[in-house]
Amino acid sequence: MSPKQVTASKRGWLDKKPSSGKSGSWQQRWCVLEQYADGAQIAWYGSQPKDDKTKPKGFLPLVQGTTVTETQPEGFIISSPGSKALPLRHSLKEHQDVWMAAIRSALEGKLEPSPEDKAKLNMAMKNMTTNATEDRQRSDTQSAGAKTVTIVKGWGRLAMTVEDSERGAGVIVTALGGDSKLAACGLNVGDTVIAVNKVLVKNHASTIAAIDACGAADELQISTAIATHKKRLDKTKGDVGVSLANMPSGVGVSVCGLADNSAAEEAGIEINDEILAINGTLVNSHTDAVKAINEASRWVDFVLVGADVSTLAKVIMVEASDFGSLMTVESRAPEPGAKVVTASAEVEAAGIKPGSVVISINNCPVCDDASCKAALEVSSAGRAHIFVPLS
Q1: Prediction pTM value
Q2: b vs e for 243-257, b when ≥16 Cβ sit within 10 Å of the residue's Cβ?
Q3: What integer pLDDT is reported at residue 4 of this predicted model?
Q4: Which end of the chain is more exposed for a tag (fewer CB within 10 A), N or C?
Q5: Which domains are assigned to the chain?
Q6: Are the C-beta atoms of 173 and 190 separated by less than 8 Å?
Q7: Three-state secondary structure along 139-196?
Q8: Any bridge partners for residue 317, and if so which?
Q9: Whose CA is closest to 103, among 81, 73, 72, 77?
C-alpha cells in the first residue's frame, strides 16, 4: 500500500470476482478507496472491516486514463492502464452508483473526505436525526418549530416534486414517491422547503439547482419552515367522525369537530389541528379534504402542522463485528418500519430490544427482514446507524 498521505477515503462492502475471473464466482470484500494529492487507489481486503488494518489482498492504482464502466447485467469494471481490469458490484444499485461516483471523483482529485476522515462519527450523528431532538444540528434559516431532514443523496431516489410557493417563502412539496428516501426520513407532502444544504431556495429552479450541486456521496439537508408530522386513521374502525373547516389563509384545513369514539379520535386527531395533506395530496379546502378521505379504501394519512413527541426519532449507533447476526425484524405493514424480533447483545446494550421499532438503518428504510439485512450490509467501519422512534 502507498505510504502517501490520504486526503479522502471511502470504505464499504463490494462484491469482487476472484483473480481467476470465473463466471458467477463473486466474493464479498471489504474495499477501501483512498485519494492522495497526486493520485488514488482502491484496495480490497477480507471479510471483516478490521481487515483494512492488515495487508490487502490486492489493490489497483487509479492512474490517468483509468475508466469506470457499468456492465450488464450487473456490476461495473475499473480499467486502469497497465493493470488487469477489476470487476466489482453491489447488490443495491443505489450503493453501486455511489461507489462508481466516488471512484470517478477520486480520479479527478475531487473525492470529499468521509466522516471518518473529517471527524468522529458521533458528530455526523447529530446531522442524521430528522426531527427536533436536542442533538439535531439546526439550520440558521430555520424557525424554532422547523425541522431538518438529512440523507445521503446517492442512497436512493429522492422522488420529490415541488412547486413555487404562494405562502411567501420557499417551495411546497406537492408529491413524494412511494420509494422516496426523503419521505422515509420524515419529509411530508405539504412541507414548505426553505433551504437545501443551508442555501435559501426561492423557487423550483433554485431548489433543483441546490440539489444538483450536492454530490451523490454527500449529505443532502432539507430544511423546512415549520415542523409537520403524520397521523394515520383506519376507516374500518367505524365512523371517521371529523369535521373540517377552510383556513382563512387558504392553506390546509382545520379540525373543527370530532365525534366521540370515532376513528379520528382514536388516531389522536384533535380540535384545532391544521391538516396540510391527506394521503399524499395537498388539501386547501373542505372539498379537497373530504374528497381525499372518501377516496381512501382504508388508511388515511394526515399531515399535521407541528411536532408530535410520539413521532420524534433518534439515531443510535451500534458497533459490532458481525452484522449478519445483529438483529432480525418482521414487517409492520402498513405501518412504517419493522419490529425487532431478535437482537444481539450489542443492540440490546444500545437500548434496542425485541419489540422495538426500527425505521431505517444506515439511511436505508427498513420494512422487513430482507431490507434490514440489505441495510446492514453497508455498515461502515464496524458501525450501524439505526433510526428508531423515541419511546
Answers
A1: 0.51
A2: ebebbeeebbbbbee
A3: 66
A4: C
A5: 8-117 (2.30.29.30), 121-227 (2.30.42.10), 229-305 (2.30.42.10), 311-389 (2.30.42.10)
A6: yes
A7: CCCCCCCCCEEEEECCCCCCCEEEEECCCCCCEEEEEECCCCHHHHCCCCCCCEEEEE
A8: 385
A9: 77
CB-based contact 323:337 (threshold 8 Å): no
For residue 111, the one-letter residue type is L
Name the grid cell of 129.
436525526
What are the angstrom distances between the C-alpha of 123 and each of 148, 205, 315?
16, 32, 12
Query: 3-state SS string over the chain?
Result: CCCCCCCEEEEEEEEECCCCCCCCCCEEEEEEEEEECCEEEEEECCCCHHHHHCCCCEEEECCCCCEEEECCCCCEEEECCCCCCEEEECCCHHHHHHHHHHHHHHHCCCCCCCHHHHCCHHHHHCCCCCCCCCCCCCCCCCCCCCCEEEEECCCCCCCEEEEECCCCCCEEEEEECCCCHHHHCCCCCCCEEEEECCEECCCHHHHHHHHHCCCCCCEEEEEECCCEEEEEEEHHHCCCCEEEEECCCCCCEEEEEECCCCHHHHCCCCCCCEEEEECCEECCCHHHHHHHHHHCCCEEEEEEECCCHHHCEEEEEEECCCHHHCEEEEECCCCCCEEEEEECHHHHHCCCCCCCEECEECCEECCCHHHHHHHHCCCECCEEEEEEECC
* Nearest Cα to Cα of residue 36 among 59, 56, 55, 54: 59
Sorted by sequence, the CB contacts under 8 Å of residue 248 that are 6+ apart come out as: none
Sign of the alpha-carbon torsion through 366, 374, 319, 110: negative
Residue 33 neighbours by CB distance under 10 Å: 22
Q: How far from each other are the two terminal CA atoms of the chain, in whole angstroms?
A: 47
What is the Cα–Cα distance from 314 to 53, expressed in whole angstroms? 31
As a whole number of angstroms, the distance between CA 48 and CA 225 comes to 43
pLDDT value at residue 154: 78
Alpha carbon distance 246, 275 (integer Å): 10
160-191 pLDDT, tens per residue?
999 988 766 789 999 998 778 788 778 899 99
